[in-house]
């Protein structure tokens, strides 16, 4: 028996299963060493092509699907190769069922494939007791990997749907800060219904952040539709909150119990995303002008006071700009 092949094969199979377990079930790390590198590599390549292609947005729409397929293929190749090395470690590990002749290398690839994926073909069989045990273990590992993959796929799809629904929910208030603040202003104050809408965004926003942490591949599902892009929705929401929290006169501001938790949730989500997917941009996202409030008839603070408050939020604005860039958006997020 070739011990080196046996140990190498076991190591590859263990790596495939461990990576799948960490990626599918870990709520802390979110991704394994293999799947994380695969996802980041696919995204970097397609994002680079996006910046050079005139219709790159459509290309980015494929990134999530390509990343998922590449992740599943990497697990499959690792597991298949690992068990193939195990069954190659000894000449009599795999034999023909009729003649008991040892199988060649290519036949062992075939045997490993139908064993791992439980196809049940019987023209080749394990040739000794330890090979029988290895065959059973290979079948169990394949079944385990397929089950994990399906579970992971379902969770990812749910998370992708959630983040797009959240983006549409934000855009339903208005496509940009101008429309958001104007829609909530009654002429004398912000309506109670507007406050309720702001409150209703807090929980879904936090959920999106946790889903990105648990399933990082969700970040790579890009939407070419502006209304379904979370990065653009969050940029528009932060523009509106900046106007409401720092630009509007204190007497005209919405209920702090509505804007406060939403701002805290936004900060938490951005910190989560920035730690895993992007860095702060060199320049912050341009702040919406106070003229937005003036045109809507909303009392506003002085320009100098507003500018000072904007500078206090420069870190978060740089983070949002980094989020936009990492999601493939380079133009003005307020553009419709």
What are the defining features of this structure?
single chain, 68% helix, 2% strand, two-stranded antiparallel sheet, mainly alpha, 336 residues, 2 domains
Please characterize this protein's 3D structure.
The chain is mainly α. It has 2 domains: 3-150, no CATH class; 158-326, no CATH class. Helices cover 68% and strands 2% of the residues. The protein has helices spanning 3-25, 33-52, 56-60, 63-88, 105-116, 129-173, 177-184, 192-214, 230-247, 256-276, 291-296, 303-312, 314-326, and strands spanning 94-96, 124-126. The longest helix is centred in the middle third of the chain and has 45 residues, at 129-173. The chain is elongated. The relative contact order is 0.10.
Brief sketch in words of this structure:
With 336 residues, this protein is an all-alpha fold. Helices cover 68% and strands 2% of the residues.
Task: Show the helix and strand layout.
Elements: H1 3-25, H2 33-52, H3 56-60, H4 63-88, E1 94-96, H5 105-116, E2 124-126, H6 129-173, H7 177-184, H8 192-214, H9 230-247, H10 256-276, H11 291-296, H12 303-312, H13 314-326
Antiparallel strand pairs: 1-2
Helix pairs in contact: 1-2, 1-4, 1-6, 2-4, 4-5, 4-6, 6-8, 6-9, 7-9, 8-10, 9-10, 9-13, 10-13
